[in-house]
Amino acid sequence: VAEDPAELKRMLEQARADLAELRGHCRRLQAEVAAFQAAGTLPAQSVPASLGQKLSGGTLQSLTAKKLCIWGLLPALVCPLKRAIMRDPVVAGDGYSYER
């Protein structure tokens, strides 16, 4: 452990930056879960193997395409402030969309 106050301060700032980054990742994951719940779909990892075996090739491709579409659109659907799907979005002067 460093004893130099300047080094400790630098380490504290780095830890705060890392924590902020982790919080951002957590918020994005929460928004993705909310989007899947709202869309009525789940990520591929949570689909039971027995269900995957029962689906025909066309149905499975359709579900996969739907999930990929949701994943691609997700950043545009989530309010960066509330971290939830926007129901009544507006475009602010900065060019970003926010929930009204």
Low-confidence stretches: none
- Rg over CA atoms: 20 Å
Helix/strand structural class = mainly alpha
Determine the mean pLDDT: 75
Assembly type of the chains comes to single chain
Order of helices and strands: HHHEE
Q: How would the global form be characterised?
A: elongated
Residue share in helices?
A: 55-70%
Number of strands: 2
Q: Gap between N and C termini, in Å?
A: 48 Å
| Adjacency order of strands in the biggest sheet | 1-2
Strand-residue proportion: 5-15%
Major sheet:
2 strands, antiparallel
Q: If helices are DSSP runs of H or I spanning 4 or more residues, what is the number of helices?
A: 3
Walk me through the structure.
- This protein is mainly alpha-helical.
- The protein is built from 3 helices and 2 strands; from the N terminus they run αααββ.
- The protein has helices spanning 5-39, 49-54, 57-77; strands at residues 89-91, 97-99.
- Strands 1-2 form a two-stranded antiparallel ribbon.
- A hairpin with a 5-residue loop joins strand 1 (89-91) and strand 2.
- Helix 1 packs across helix 3.
- The chain is elongated and about 65 Å long.
- It starts with a helix and ends with a strand.
In short:
By secondary structure, the chain is mainly alpha-helical. The protein has helices at 5-39, 49-54, 57-77; strands at 89-91, 97-99.
What is the strand and helix layout of this fold?
Layout lengths: L4 H35 L9 H6 L2 H21 L11 E3 L5 E3 L1
Antiparallel strand pairs: 1-2
Helix pairs in contact: 1-3
What labels would you give this structure?
single chain, 100 residues, mainly alpha, two-stranded antiparallel sheet, 3 helices, 2 strands, 62% helix, 6% strand
